[in-house]
Amino acid sequence: MTIPACVFTGGGSGGGVxxxxxxxxxxxxxxxxxxxxxxxxLSIQTGMMQVGVSFxxxxxxxxxxxxxxxxxxxxxxxxxTINQQSSIGGITGSISTVNPNVTPPDLAILLxxxxxxxxxxxxxxxxxxxxxxxxxxxxxPPDYYGNPxxxxxxxxxATLGAPRMWWLANWIYDLLGDINLNIPGILAVSQSxxxxxxxxVTIVLPDTWIGNTLYVKIASVNNIGVQQDLSTITxxxxxxxxxxxxxxxxxxxxxxxxxxxxxxxxxxxGWSGDLVMTWYTRNRFNxxxxxxxxxxxxxxxxxxxxxxxxxxxxxxxxxxxxYLYLHIHQFPGDxxxxxxxxxxxADVTTVPFKVKIYQEDAQGVSDPLSVWVEYPTGG
Length: 379
Hints:
Layout: E1 6-8, E2 31-37, H1 40-43, E3 49-56, E4 63-71, E5 91-99, E6 106-111, H2 123-128, E7 135-138, E8 151-162, E9 165-173, E10 180-181, E11 192-195, E12 201-205, E13 213-222, E14 236-239, E15 251-255, E16 258-259, E17 264-266, E18 275-280, E19 304-312, E20 318-324, E21 336-339, H3 341-347, E22 353-361, E23 364-365, E24 369-374
């Protein structure tokens, strides 16, 4: 397998006040290193899959730069295919506080070095910002099946609470999954984070990497050119799932005008005929997502094929599968499908039941929008 090239860019933050010390001492390791597959919104300029690498440079006079090495195998060989190195770190750290038991929930991060985080005046200002500013990556443990569960979120404001410790407010959780406001989800203390306003290293990947794991080592170099021993550096693992091609799940299902709440729509006893289901589309490049002039301005993916609607019974056994085909240029907001009374009777669908809606593109399938239809409490 071809080892990808690394592309270094400038910018980012340092690691704070540099203490005195011999300029020729061994270079210290970078702090809070992270490597992650970049979502399509951040890779749109290259038109290819990318892995982002970020770190905080150590507070050391002798440290001069970092070199990124990659491998297709955890044991190597590790190679770098460029002559350029990064002398400037990014903004990385870890989650220091998560408290879902207050309103709104508390979320604080501790940075590895000194940096000033940006705040938007309003949520509208943040959503309308086309640069994707204040996006944050959180490295979470894999799920039960070993699938990566890394989270991307955006925060409106950051307030300095202590040296290098920032409180975040009004964050949109899980930009690639089921988006919610101020929901901690699977966030936990000590999880590594990276602020994505600046990514010091990006690695372009060919499509053949999908389904494989990229291993990354970041080696520090001192002022006289002596590099860390690669064998002493723990590799970062990046499972490549093809985020550049993976559609985003639809959002905000309504049935007969009644919107979901926390993944549930309560059955209205007045519903005796067809069930009209509507939802919002999303596209992985966020095209139109920064235009607040229309609430349904976000268009479909350029390679959109169809929606798949699955109906499950109370035991979560699949009852039937339906498909909704829409033209890519059909005006967004036309995401409407009717579960007819005749189809419900033929499926023998009774309350409670579950609806799952997937977006299928030419090169991938989204995670589902999953909603239960239940009787009201006491119904």
